[in-house]
Amino acid sequence: MITLYDFELSADCYTVRLMMAALRVSFRRIELDVYPGREHESPWFLKINPSGQLPLLDDDGILRCGVQAILGHLTGRHDPGGRWYPRDDPEMPARVARWLEVAARLSATAGSARLHDTMFYAADIDACRGGAHALFRALDEHLWFAEQSGHDWLCSAGHPTIADIACFPHVMLSEEGGVSRLPYPAIRRWTDRVKRIPHFAPMSGIFNASPSRSALT
Amino acid sequence: MSAIGLTAAGETSAAIDRWFPVARGEEVVPRHIVQAQLLGREIALWRDDNGLVNAWENRCPHRGVRLSIGLNTGTELHCRYHGWRYASGSGQCTYIPAHPGQKPAATMRVGRFGAAEAHGFVWVNLSDSTEPPLLSTPAGAQMTTLRSIYARAPASTVADCLLRGYRFALDPTVAADSPTDAALVAGDPYTVRARVHAGQREASVTFLLQPVSASHTVIHGLLTMYDVTADRLAVLRHHNAQMSALRDTAERA
Fold it and tell me: Do residue A209 and residue B240 have CB atoms under 8 angstroms apart?
């Protein structure tokens, strides 16, 4: 049995929910009142997870904390085809690692701007937004050339990987932090493709896409 | 309707009845809604399943929510907020989920702009003009649309940077030392053509400037080459790097 210690509005928690939806892994949620209640700093939760960090995953007694560790755990244990974190292609681990690092930087910039604007976290808001735009500019260029080479996904695999799952939430929620995606048309096309991954899970502010034409024929 | 986000009113009135490229045609993909902006006006740009491109005011007539966060179903655009549906072509509201038995009034219609496809781009005219966009292009030349570059700089600054000595090489195999001859096309402040001659080979890039607002510009590029020796992807990367450097210069100016 998998339990996710969760906060509905957390982008990192959403990343884990999205991954489990795509893997068709069933789980139960324990919702914490992070904002405004700061329940992740409450004695009962610190007893389980002294770092107080969310998301926290309990998979039959194995505890995993933080989005990268949880993605690694889920793909290691619950992705028998090995598609989401492919290791058969020698190029792939480096590509996946690169985009997981970008995802962490997106969290520190676009994600922090959103926490600042919506939950009153302290942040240098101009630096956060500027950093997010710099990352988006590079991401848009990467995705444009990927499309020109016939690739739909970040790692040039024929299918999405954890890199796409990890970057998507912070990109998709950026406008809640005042970071517009209007200048990034290739990013906007990629987000539609992510939304069409089978069993895609929406959240507050992130909606389903219309079915693609090929899905109907 | 909110005010047009421009400080130079003269620029607005002069530019409003003309066609600007707002996207490469192949990037207006099926079942997607492009969020574009021209002269401060936001545009929801979408292609229906028959291939027709719609350029609509990015605002639901019901509650003002951006239509670009809605759904392109191939025949209609559905607003995300209350599900109102608008037909491709006419922009007419066809269905209101809260009143399923009622035919929506003929006045419930999305604001539409002129839209046309030519030279590999989707062009938009904010006025009611139906004149199609025209661009003189040499016969028999190979045309390639380059990656469009978004610059946080006014169109006039981008044009200045181009005219003050934009140097480009034909393709990655040619050094950038041959002189580039950049000029406004027919005195149009939004179109700059740069030509380069290198022996038998000749090429030009026509830069089409899309004034997003008074302070932001999209630089579109149409490459004309008579003799392509490098592969297409390398040529695209090469010009992307050069246009990105142009953007950086314009943003620092």
Answer: no
